[in-house]
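Shipment paperwork, digital attachment
Item: protein structure file
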Amino acid sequence: MDAKLKQRIALGILFFQSGLCFSTWASRIPDIKAAFAFSDSELGTLLLIRPLGAFIGLPFAGWVVDKYGSNYSSVVGILAFSVSLVLLGLSPSVWWLAGAILLFGLSANLTNISINAQALAVQKNYGKTIISSFHGLWSLAGFCGAGLGAVLISLKVVMLYHFLLIMGTVLIFGLLTFKHLSREHQAGSRKFVFKKPEPVLLRLGLIAFCGLLCEGCIYDWAGIYFKQVVQVEAGLVTAGFIAYMGTMALGRMVSDHFTNRFGSTAIIQASGVLIFSGLILAVLFPHLITAILGFVLVGAGTSSVIPLTYAQVGKNPSLSPGISLATVSTIGYFGFLLGPPLIGFIADLLNLRASFALVAVAGLMITVLATLAKRRDSKAATQALTPS
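Attachment content:
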């Protein structure tokens, strides 16, 4: 087995582990809500801590990747990610829970920036777009993690034991993969500075903002929506989330093929339409089959948005991968930052269906932003070719 393939397999394992950690948390959110007797708005406020921690740590994460190398930061991030899960399971109080969620958000995004910087390095060696396949493994892990969560919940397995099982798996495979990771992004001399993002990064960040707001809606509220609005049995609470993650995984596995054929702009435009259609279907017809179908469409729509924005970062050789990924993610994570509490507040003010309808509009904005960006790029290209 050549070094290039070993790098791809090792990185794929890290993407899978990251998705497994995240979906494990998502599958237990209804249990956490019940254990602490949170209202929708209280849960929304608590869920704000995770993207807040991620947002605070994003500039630092980009600097760490460029300073010490994405191979080191990837392993450190995934190990911290799994440990934070166990701290969540040990929570004896709301304050402990809040601290554990903060660490969860910080470590999740150190992992996110690191493994995506690794993906850009591995992709260069292949000479074609493969980053979506890595994100597909993340989503596949989410599907598996949600399924495992459903089984363990039905068997009444204590949440802490569930989290310990995941941590043990991550520790073993995380340490085994380290020596095979790409060392292209080794320690450098980057300075930790804040500056206004370049226009191309700002455009990508706004698309990521809408995409991550929609993703955050499903990650944090899918179980609650199926429990309170669709009113399914306990064993089917994760059905929507499983359908979403399964379709997202499949979409990311085939995304590279369709992107190469139709172009990234067309795929992003179609993604926004799918997200809007899926959420509206789930809102207008909150029944088991139609809600699951709606979440399937949302999964197909969100599958390509973030991988394609990250891939665009990698196409500009003048931009530092770690810092640029952190910039796009920082803008995008405002979606995660605003989404969970906004959904909770609107649910308390109106209802949860109204919250999901608002998120559907955010999904449609992805199509609008991609269309406007395409027109600007076409206009700029025309002007560049016009003789003065």
